[in-house]
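Section 4.2 – Deliverable D4.2 (structural model, holo form)

The reporting period included a commitment to supply a predicted holo structure for the target in complex with flavin mononucleotide. Inputs used:
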Amino acid sequence: MNKTIAIRYYSKTGHTKKLAKVLSDYFNIEALTINEPLTTPTDLLFLGGACYGATLSKEMMAFIKTLNPQVINNIIIFTSACKLNPYQLFVEELQKNNLNVAKEYFYCKGSFLIMNINHPNQDDLVELKKFASKISNTLLKD
Ligand SMILES: Cc1cc2nc3c(=O)[nH]c(=O)nc-3n(C[C@H](O)[C@H](O)[C@H](O)COP(=O)(O)O)c2cc1C
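Output (structure tokens):
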């Protein structure tokens, strides 16, 4: 696998951070927060975040604006939420900025107040590992 990959995430309550760690361990690259700019050529960016009040965080929106479509070839979303699947929110925001977003994405439940208690749980993390393996054998194949 000679493709360049990167991980960036934003996590208010720790769930996306947990998911980012699985990807970081699987691909053996550091998972950085969106406080770290991404300006180097990247074949595949794993971008993680959730939705808050039915929208992406303002921090995520601002980060997306910093991404250069000439430098970032493709983006895979990993996300969680208590009810709404945020994938489409990401697609809209990324496409507005002319960025490619893969149709493959990872979504699992995320706890909020009394909803989805303990999610992302161990099973969710196992599913994410399987997803990473699938991406490795498809989009990341030379
Ligand atoms: C302030 C706040 C607002 C939220 N609003 C929504 C929402 O509108 N829809 C939804 O499905 N989940 C909502 N959630 C749940 C989060 O999307 C979910 O807990 C997610 O896993 C959080 O990821 P994080 O821990 O990485 O921040 C909200 C959570 C918080 C803390």
